[in-house]
Amino acid sequence: MGKATFRFYEELNDFLPAHRRKVDFTAEFTEKRSLKDMIEALGVPHPKIDLILANGKPVGFSYILQDGDRFSVYPVFEALNIGNVTRLRRVPLRKTRFIAHKNLGDIVKYMRLLGFDTYYDAGASDRQLIEISNHEKRIILTQSNKLLKFKDVTHAIVIRSGTAKEKVGRIIDHLDIKDQTKPFSRCFLCNGLTESIAKDRAIHRIPSRKRAFYDEHARCRSCGKIYWKGTNFIEMKKAVDQMLGNCSYYWRIKRLQTS
């Protein structure tokens, strides 16, 4: 039986019991135990980890624990440059696309509203979700810690509880993708891209009582749905401003530097 000291940083602490968060703690282990196995036994899913230092030097998940080792474990950094050390995750998916777990259907409309390519199928199993994520290089959005423990999950974010707008704001904040937003560029219904069209090509699809009031129109390239800047557009614009205004990325980085 050996002992090792661990310290987890930033959001990795969310997976630990309160008495182990943001502090050094000691854990016992049996002989020839891998670092990946030990970390997951402590409750932290490996896809959330990007860097591990063992006694000050970067190591991989296959590292075999030694008595007296000291580990510093860091989360996936989508925005910070740590290129001079050994990263445990693949290169961040800077062409940011998502796939939402069935328990996050409430955020899909808002993700698409902001222009993010967001796949959603409420009937998809966990295995199908992971396969689509890997094949199409999509980041999994989920509220299930259990999903992250599948060994072939490569990019995923666990979303905390809150309103749909709060959840979306946290995703943008976590990945530092505020500058990638393109509001109203996607269809809320099918995720397809929209394009501007002339009024005379859309007017037959608009309720007759509204035809005289709106001159700007867009159409989904995939499903053909018509959009115009009516009352609903004003409400959606307020939602966009609210979600982007709630982002606090630089505050999170500041907290990381002092934690």
Low-confidence region ranges:
78-92, 249-259
DSSP E strands, number: 12
How far apart lie the N and C ends?
31 Å
As a percent range, the share of strand residues is 15-25%
Shape: elongated
Share in helix: 25-40%
**Largest beta sheet: what is the strand line-up?**
2-1-5-3-4
User: Largest beta sheet, briefly?
Assistant: 5 strands, mixed
Q: What is the overall pLDDT average?
A: 81
Summed up, the helix count is: 7
Structural class: alpha/beta
Instruction: Give the SSE order as H and E letters.
Output: EEHEEEEHEHEEHEHEEHH
Computed Rg: 22 Å
Detail the topology: elements first, then pairings.
Layout: E1 2-8, E2 25-29, H1 35-41, E3 49-54, E4 57-58, E5 70-75, E6 97-100, H2 105-113, E7 117-120, H3 126-136, E8 139-142, E9 156-158, H4 164-175, E10 194-197, H5 199-202, E11 217-220, E12 226-228, H6 231-245, H7 249-258
Parallel strand pairs: 1-5, 6-7, 6-8, 8-9
Antiparallel strand pairs: 1-2, 3-4, 3-5, 10-11, 11-12
Helix pairs in contact: 2-4, 4-6
Report on the architecture of this protein.
- The chain is 26% helix and 20% strand.
- The chain has 259 residues and is of the alpha/beta class.
- Among the domains are: 2-75, Ubiquitin-like (UB roll) (Roll); 97-181.
- Helix 2 (105-113) packs across helix 4 and helix 4 (164-175) crosses helix 6.
- The two termini are 31 Å apart.
- Residues 78-92 and 249-259 have low confidence and may be disordered.
Write a compact overview of the structure shown.
By secondary structure, the protein is of the alpha/beta class.
